[in-house]
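Good morning N.,

You mentioned wanting to compare the apo and holo forms, so I went ahead and generated the holo version with zinc ion. This is what I fed in:
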Amino acid sequence: MALSAPDSTTRWRCARCGNLTRFDVVRTTSSTQYWHFDLAGVPSVEEESIVRDEIQSVTCRWCGATDTVELVERIERAEDV
Ligand SMILES: [Zn+2]
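and this is what came out, ligand included:
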């Protein structure tokens, strides 16, 4: 099952080793872009809107597990309160 991306109140956690900070993420993004070429033919992307954004898998960087990463509540840090 695809894992949701964390929002402002949640974060990822590896249930196997407790890792909270390092993950390898496989993600598929589709976007519509406005490409503006200069006279020499060099493009730059001046506008972009995301059409589709899916997370395929999240792998724990510490223990290498892929199916143990879960979404948990963030604990408020003292300086944020
Ligand atoms: Zn882990």
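The CA atoms of residues 33 and 77 lie 38 Å apart.

Happy to go through it together on a call whenever suits you.

Best,
F.
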